[in-house]
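To: structure desk
From: M.T.
Subject: fold request, one chain
Message: Could you run this one when you get a chance? Sequence is below, nothing fancy, just the single chain.
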Amino acid sequence: MGILERYLGYHFLRGYLVVLLVLLALFGFIDFVDELSEVGEGRYRIADAFLYVLSTYPSKVLEFSAICSLMGGSLALAGLVRGSEILAMRAAGMSLGRVILALAKVMGLLAVLLMIVAEYFAPMSQQWGFIHRQEALEGSGALRTEHGFWSRDRRKFLNVRAIVHGRVPEDVDIYHFDPAGKLLAFIHARQAEVREKGIWMLEGVTIKTWNDGILQTRRQPALSWRSFLTPRQLKTLELPPETLAITDLWHYVRYLEATGQESEQYELLFWQRVLLPVSMAVVLLFLLPMAATSPRSGGFGWQVAVSIVIGVFYFLATQVVANLGLLWDLSPLMTALAPTVAVLLLAVAMLRWGRN
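Reply: Done. Structure tokens follow.
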């Protein structure tokens, strides 16, 4: 990048970060106030609520990416136009196409960083926050160690070594002891499917029992087992969709489809994350008229106002359309694309109106 391109990128990122910090502070405060209703349950304290809200920030950065690009970019360009800096750049030989290309490069780099956040940092942060919150609310009875998830109910113990796709228990061990502390039965399952009413369908099962000192072993392809986990312990074991990485969402969708289960919620979130660069590219179209605005025309004020209104509309439309798509059983891909397509059509209409 040249000096002028870096200068444009600096102002764009500064505007982006200003809007992002405002939104994070606003929504973070709302979430924190909402969490205060849970403070006092189990070992959950104000510090835990604060840490949980902070752990959700990387995911919020993804949710706000498009609206921050639109609002932040509009504010940045408005400042440059007002100070005649865009005019000076163009007088120095930087064409309008190069101005847009510079913005596209910055947004492209930002989109790559956001995809890395979506794949690695956001899931890691939110999973930690979610597990920490559930364990604090539970207070006792469940434990996560380097050997997996442990829970007990009187003389029964459950150990889950791994959670695949955030919701599928793997390498499951169940121990049953007598009142004297002697092991009566041991069940090992390769994988488990968590069903309704606390029923687990164990797959690849090995059962070992001790009768009068004699070990008996038998194997079954499947076994229905009623779990003793409380609803809150089960939440600790199962991670919500928004805590999963993009690749985990994809594999879990394939797993749900293979087992005949509903996958629309996870598939919708997957497409929303994957289409993040597309939504940012559409946002770039709204910045075209502003980059071409003359400081004497005075038109950048209403353009910033329109960008802010459209940014809020896009954010709200994404939430509403997502819920309606799940309610009406629409295609997750089309549901994820609908708000972006609507904004794209609006941007094209504004560009045509601006030319006329």
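Reply (cont.): Strands lie at 142-145, 148-153, 156-164, 168-177, 183-194, 199-211, 214-226. Let me know if you need anything else for the meeting.
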